[in-house]
Amino acid sequence: MAFELIITNAGRAALVNAASTGTDAVTVTQIGVSATAVAANPALTALDGEFKRLGTVAGGAIAADKITLQVLDDSTDAYTLRSFALYLNDGTLFALYGQVDAILIKTPNTLAQLEADVLLADIDATTIEFGNPVFSNPPATETMRGIAKIATQAATNEALDDESFVTPEKAMGLINHLFPSGSNANGNWRKMPDGNGGYFIHQWGSNFTGLGAGAGNAGWSGAYEFPIPFTDLSSVQMKLTAQTLNVTGADSNLIAAEVTSLNTYRLGSEDILRPVWWEAWGR
Predict the structure, then answer these.
(1) What's the pLDDT tens digit per position in 41-81?
(2) Which of 40, 44, 134, 178 sits a CA distance of 20 to 30 A from 205?
(3) Phi, psi (5° rounding) for residue 155?
(4) In the chain, % of residues over pLDDT 70
């Protein structure tokens, strides 16, 4: 929307430089708000029905005769806005506008934000400055557009920063932080949070058993290294699945796994040398 402001006589006087040879810039620092439909008059020095002033006002020239105006009220006040006035840093009523219809309606639980273009009939817009440059580039929130910074990977992983945004790259970094993974020649590993500040470790791969010597006489392989060491030997469990059927063995050819340390395991067979898939879980 666009409002055509009336510049007051006092406002025009403030624009005249000390030598009366030109204009000086003026600085708007506050906006007064009123529920009254004020008939703008250049002779006014106060806004009829004004009930509060806001310092959260910003803007700037966007054309020779036009400024953009931004006003924010994040209080719990409730009101209907029909008129407003711009005040300079010395308290001078610089310009005002009023209408019968509501410009905005604020409730206690809402944030009021007015963004509008303002027409200046015969005033150079570049002579009007605003004294709240921070508000013109406010920090972004969940309810307001603004300036935000990219979260660092460390801040993303810590999950304590609620003022920075996360990029897809940082999101993938968080996934890798929470669910790290890797591999070695014997297989793969991944970690999953256990809910108590630690991790469950899941590992899997493919190896050969040792060559057995008949029923009850397992032949064990040499030591294989886990892709990543476990931290609690008593928690480690292993499971084997044969990759091929035993069609030539003399007996049932049972296969077995044994965890020999936090770092190593070995695989056994009662009969033939067999390829197996293995899995291990633990902490």
Answers:
(1) 999 999 999 999 999 888 888 788 888 888 989 899 999 99
(2) 178
(3) -65, -35
(4) 88
For every residue of the chain, DSSP letters joined together read -EEEEEEPHHHHHHHB-TTSSSB--EEEEEEEEESS-----TT-SS-TTEEEEES-EEEEEEETTEEEEEEEE-SS--EEE-EEEEEETTS-EEEEEE-SS-SEEE-TTS-EEEEEEEEESSS-GGGEEES-HHHHSPBP-SSS--B-EEPPHHHHHHT--SSEE--HHHHHHHHHHHS-EEEETTEEEEEEE-SSSSEEEEEEEEEE-----STT-PEEP-PEEPSS--S-GGG-EEEEEESS--SS-SS---EEEEE-SSSEEEEEESSS--EEEEEEEE-
What is this structure's pTM?
0.49
Output the six-digit token pair for 17. 């430089």
Token look-up 């969940």 returns: 142
Q: Report residue 136 CA to chain centroid gap.
A: 21
Q: Which amino acid is at 28?
A: V
Place of tokens 């040499």: 222
